[in-house]
């Protein structure tokens, strides 16, 4: 009986871990200078805000950059508002996030329930 309870507990733990690491969405995008300016004109200075504006330029304003893929996650303004925190919660290489701020890289994104990971597209 104790063994059955332990196995059931282990099974639910494994399922929970798998659900947490499942990719919910994935896309690639070209970061441009236009993505580094908020809709009301002020400059954006962190990778999360720039990635958020990139998705707003695609979904809200219909102005994607060449190389911007679509996604299903960030269609709404409320969903896009979560991007900076998702980036903060993620495991992205700091060099990739710095390049988003200081350059115009082509990057890919995996979106998970509670975080997102960003890497260079090659």
List keywords for this structure.
5 helices; signal; disordered N terminus; alpha+beta; single chain; 43% helix
Number of strands: 3
Strand order of the largest sheet: 1-2-3
Poorly predicted runs of 5 or more residues: 1-19
What is the straight-line distance between the termini?
Answer: 53 Å
Major sheet characteristics: 3 strands, antiparallel
Average residue pLDDT:
88
Number of structurally distinct domains? 1
Shape: globular
Walk me through what this model shows:
This protein is an alpha+beta fold. The chain has one domain (22-120). 43% of the residues lie in helices and 14% in strands. It contains five helices and three strands; from the N terminus they run αβααααββ. A three-stranded antiparallel β-sheet has the order 1-2-3. A hairpin with a 4-residue loop joins strand 2 (106-111) and strand 3 (116-120). The longest helix is centred in the N-terminal third of the chain and has 20 residues, at 2-21. The chain is globular and about 35 Å long. 22% of the residues are buried. Mean pLDDT is 88; it is low at 1-19.
């Amino acid at each position: 009986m104790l063994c059955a309870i332990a196995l059931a507990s282990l099974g639910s733990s494994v399922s929970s871990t798998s659900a947490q690491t499942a990719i919910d969405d994935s896309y690639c995008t070209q970061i441009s200078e236009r993505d580094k300016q908020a809709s009301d004109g002020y400059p954006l200075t962190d990778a999360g805000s720039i990635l958020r504006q990139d998705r707003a330029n695609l979904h809200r304003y219909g102005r994607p950059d060449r190389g911007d893929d679509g996604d299903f996650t960030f269609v709404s303004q409320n969903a896009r508002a979560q991007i900076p925190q998702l980036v903060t919660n993620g495991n992205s290489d700091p060099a990739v996030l710095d390049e988003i701020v200081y350059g115009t890289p082509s990057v890919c994104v995996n979106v998970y329930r509670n975080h997102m990971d960003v890497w260079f597209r090659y």
